[in-house]
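An instance follows:
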Amino acid sequence: MNYRAAEGDSIPSIPVTLGLEPESAMTAATDAIAEEGKPEEGRGALLVPYVPAARRFFLPQWVAFDDEDRLLVGSVGEAEAHVASMQRYVGVLHAAVSLAPYVVADPEYQRKRYGMLGQLVNQGRALARCYTTLMIRIVQQRAGAQDLDRGLSLSQPYFDDQRLELRMWDFTVIPAGRIISTWWSRTFESTGTACSSATT
């Protein structure tokens, strides 16, 4: 796997597509792919149970979002569990360095750290965007029901690249007791559809 850094970022987290995976008219993007290679005697084709978007990462079994922020798993709860697993993995790597600092010179350690760090940042940011989309939908519903007259305070989720965890930024949008204008009812109407299922 290979990552590139987004503009202004210091951590490479966007998988680089090398264009080596052939497209097939016989399979959908959500199908398991039979990998070509030297078959073992008595065995059939090796099925890889991960979509192409997941196979570009270090550990595809923990990839919950594709590059368009669509869910590749059954629920947001599963996505949270995947991010937690990646955080534990990185934590184990950091613990190894604290116990044996010389391990940083090991190419295998560097490969694992690079692979998991990029994957965690990528998927953590996607999870934060997913939460934001869900939050926007709730605000849309409340605005449509004229239920924002008591004010609106938000906890904006974001992924902290330094702490490698999801954090919240709390702020007030509408002070309590204010009467909102019709502009607020139209504010979120043009949002995207991130955090939708990739299979729908």
About this structure: The first strand starts at residue 3 and ends at 4. The beta strands are 3-4, 14-15, 33-35, 46-48, 152-160, 165-174. Helices lie at 52-55, 76-99, 107-144, 182-186.
